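Action item from last week, closing it out:
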Amino acid sequence: MIYLAPLQGTTDRIYRTLFPLYFKGVDLAIAPFISPMKKMKADHRLLKEVDPHENKGIPTIPQIMTAHPGDFVTLANRLYDMGCATVNWNIGCPFPMVVKKGRGAGILCYPERVAAFLEEAVPALKPALSIKLRIGTAYPDEVFALLPIFDRFSLEELIIHPRTGKQMYEGEVDIDTFGESLKVTKHRVVYNGDIDSAEKLAQLAKRFGSIDRWMIGRGLLGNPFLAEEIKFATEKPYPEKVRILRAFHDHLFAEYAQVLCGPAHIVNKMKEIWTYLGSFLDKRDKILKKINKTHHRDNYLDVVNRAFDELEK
């Protein structure tokens, strides 16, 4: 199975809904995290983002980030009542402002806090629970204090990114620590981290024969054809990929234009998408430089259309 990783500000409900209309191979998505709020009405935009009735694209598991078990349970059970059979606990977010508050990857160096959280939360949960984590806050061996704790609870799976929070997205993934982790957990494990080609996944699959679930984030956003290239061992001709990517882009633009207020908002949103989009495109750096200089809707569309026209020649 191939999972679409959660990327805050990018893999939202609209993106997940349109993605399978143009690209194949993704089986499941984890939504970008929600932090519990005391007052969340039924029509709150964050709840709408993960409401199964509003998500018609990739089947999606909502993700919650908090260090407070009571808040987690309240939101998780509300999501269950909306139709979400599984929720995910984010203890992997590496951003410094999150880590400083002891949330995300900031809790990984406190195994006693993780244990206390699960002891209170798990018995009260209606949905099944999966956990997305890194191998530590600052040190990769921190995961080995956590895995025995996880084994005390019934969990759907562990999604492990083999970097520390301190690393952010820099440096090499720690494949050795990931391999050792597999030996000391009873839970199903999903691999997450730096899969950017079918060849890379094949190498990982050869090394870790017990893994059959893979989460891909930046590699899949950059090359949305990656999942089908992995699953079906085929690759579309470059001109066809350009045409499909253009149609996807135009559909995204049209949908975001309906919900975002003001021309600057839609341009900024599309710039976020272009942070990753089209990594396989010829002269992508030159295209991205021109896009980032735009500030108005018409100017943006002119630049992008000219770029796609040139690519399609």
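Closing note: DSSP finds 14 helices and nine strands in the chain.
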